[in-house]
User: Which sequence fits this backbone?
């Protein structure tokens, strides 16, 4: 289980690097659009649209990695007040609920994607492409999150009977 | 189900899910799944939930968030910020509480190029706190300014959370970003005045050596004093000017201005020969971590306002509040008190997601100036970073302070700065022009 988890962690790290490179690409494309538009009067017409899609893809690609690193913000007010063993049980309940929610999102995300594929739905803005290309990221991300919740739960079982130390703000 | 039962279920459920320590994004998702089953018609509601999750962050108005965060991350990971602090140290030499004043002024300039409050506090805390303590500064005098200026970062653009507030509340993002400048600068000026007065009244709080006794590298003369400022600070201010100028001059949207700012910061770091592939990658992954956290909460929470609305909770509560016949001002005071209370316990993104579905319809019904309200909201969020027991900047400071510093000392250090932030909140409440003047002037 530990080796599997470590291998999965490497996949999540790779996805985060892809997210980081997408961000760099967004900066380059949007900046090039502004500079060209103001310098020669013609910008990159699809720049804004691509940056919207990129924001969505980047957010989803990094979500499982953030869960692995304990960086998804949470409140630990109650966890710090209750006895360590109770906090540990609460952590376990949180993982089970997180896993359950991920399964629901996999199911409905997959149905949404399949429907769109069956209907041949097309996204038509400046770029024209099948809508499911975008939608598929949602169920895929929640599948990764569900797996990570399993590893997270496993780490909790193997660790000390106490709460985790994780991020509580994003500011 | 009545709106009262609905609100107990939805808010009680959200509080319970957050209390067990579920990440905020998943706590919202859990309640959205329950809400979709109960109030949005089951299967169609759950399908809608998935659709909303996709649309939530496929949004041009949210794109400035990673760009603004990236500006700060590049500044810090490439070490460009260190040279800027040194440049200030050469210029500010004959004031009481000198190092604390330098922390505030350097922090204000960093705020103008960084969208991340925690980065500002951590950087100034780790760099300047040891020096101040080594020179015999009282811990309160050493830590307070750094905690305070971290909060100002949220007000002075670029600010990731301002973009989020504008986007979620339907307030002009460019207007709100610009509206934060004057209150942020006033707050910085108040902090500097406070430090000077306190240090002048009681020099033991901030013992200063005469200029001739400063280390040799802190007392050059003539051009040697100003050159580092011109090289290491002026370009940063120019990037800030570029972002704000592009936005207000109609050359670029907030997203585009933010991208240009991020590209400008990377270019500046490269020109300083401080940019390496490794620190650029660190800045990029740091950025996707911070902005990914914020945006994934939006993915999780996006259906919550819809669930609240369909369950009748929003209409019920708003009907109840408007039935009380309160004046708009009383209502806003009540909202600010709720925000200040929430700020003591809840993170800034959750504060917005929980309150805005109720606040914004009321604000619009009473025809309240949106920019003014937005700035008051921002100051409450900024205060949430400073207020005990869980203010994030207090813990950030504790994290970078020497082990001998206790949490009580950190709380005591923050108190005057909390008081000054409350004062600016009251000032802007009574004199909205402080917030609305600059956006009105620049939009002409």
Assistant:
């Amino acid at each position: 289980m530990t080796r599997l988890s470590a291998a999965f962690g490497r996949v999540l790290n790779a996805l985060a690097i892809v997210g980081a490179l997408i961000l760099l690409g967004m900066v380059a494309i949007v900046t090039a659009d502004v500079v060209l538009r103001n310098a020669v009067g013609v910008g990159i017409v699809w720049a804004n649209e691509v940056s919207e899609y990129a924001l969505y893809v980047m957010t989803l690609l990094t979500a499982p990695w953030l869960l692995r690193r304990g960086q998804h913000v949470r409140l630990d007010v109650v966890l710090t007040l209750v006895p360590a063993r109770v906090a540990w049980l609460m952590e376990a309940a949180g993982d089970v609920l997180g896993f359950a929610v991920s399964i629901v999102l996999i199911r409905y995300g997959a149905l949404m994607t399949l429907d769109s594929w069956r209907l041949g739905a097309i996204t038509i803005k400046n770029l024209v492409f099948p809508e499911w290309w975008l939608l598929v990221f949602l169920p895929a991300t929640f599948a990764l999150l569900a797996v990570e919740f399993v590893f997270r739960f496993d780490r909790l079982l193997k660790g000390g009977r106490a709460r985790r130390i994780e991020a509580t703000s994003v500011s | 189900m009545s709106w009262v039962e609905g609100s107990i279920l939805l808010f009680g459920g959200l509080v319970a899910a957050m209390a067990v320590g579920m990440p905020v994004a998943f706590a919202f998702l859990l309640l959205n799944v329950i809400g979709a089953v109960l109030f949005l018609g089951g299967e169609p509601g759950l399908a809608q939930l998935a659709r909303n999750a996709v649309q939530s962050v496929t949004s041009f108005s949210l794109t400035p968030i990673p760009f603004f965060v990236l500006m700060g991350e590049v500044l810090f990971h490439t070490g460009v910020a260190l040279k800027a602090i040194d440049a200030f140290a050469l210029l500010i030499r004959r004031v009481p509480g000198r190092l604390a004043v330098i922390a505030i002024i350097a922090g204000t300039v960093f705020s103008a190029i960084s969208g991340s409050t925690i980065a500002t506090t951590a950087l100034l805390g780790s760099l300047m706190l040891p020096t101040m303590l080594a020179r015999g500064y009282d811990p309160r005098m050493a830590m307070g300014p750094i905690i305070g200026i971290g909060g100002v970062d949220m007000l002075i653009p670029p600010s990731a959370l301002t973009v989020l507030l504008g986007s979620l509340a339907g307030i002009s993002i460019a207007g709100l970003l610009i509206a934060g400048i004057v209150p942020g600068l006033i707050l910085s000026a108040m902090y500097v005045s406070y430090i000077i007065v306190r240090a002048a009244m009681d020099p033991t709080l901030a013992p200063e050596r005469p200029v001739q006794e400063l280390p040799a590298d802190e007392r050059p003369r003539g051009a040697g004093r100003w050159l580092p400022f011109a090289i290491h600070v002026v370009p940063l201010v120019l990037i800030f000017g570029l972002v704000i100028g592009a936005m207000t001059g109609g050359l670029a949207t907030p997203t585009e201005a933010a991208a240009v700012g991020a590209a400008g910061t990377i270019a500046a770091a490269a020109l300083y020969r401080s940019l390496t592939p490794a620190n650029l990658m660190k800045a990029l992954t740091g950025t996707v971590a911070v902005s990914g956290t914020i945006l994934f909460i939006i993915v999780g929470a996006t259906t919550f306002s819809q669930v609240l609305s369909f369950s009748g909770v929003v209409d019920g509560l708003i009907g109840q509040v408007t039935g009380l016949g309160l004046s708009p001002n009383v209502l806003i005071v009540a909202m600010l008190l709720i925000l200040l209370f929430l700020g003591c316990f809840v993170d800034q993104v959750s504060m917005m997601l929980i309150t805005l579905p109720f606040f914004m319809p009321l604000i619009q019904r009473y025809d309240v100036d949106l920019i003014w309200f937005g700035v008051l909201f921002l100051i409450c969020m900024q205060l949430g970073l400073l207020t005990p027991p869980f203010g994030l900047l207090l813990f950030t400071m504790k994290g970078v302070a020497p082990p001998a510093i206790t949490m009580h000392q950190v709380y005591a250090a923050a108190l005057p700065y909390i008081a000054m932030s409350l004062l600016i909140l009251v000032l802007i409440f009574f004199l909205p022009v402080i917030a609305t003047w600059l956006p009105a002037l620049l939009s002409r």
Notes: Chain B touches chain A through 72 residues (CB under 8 Å). The first helix of chain B runs from residue 3 to 19.
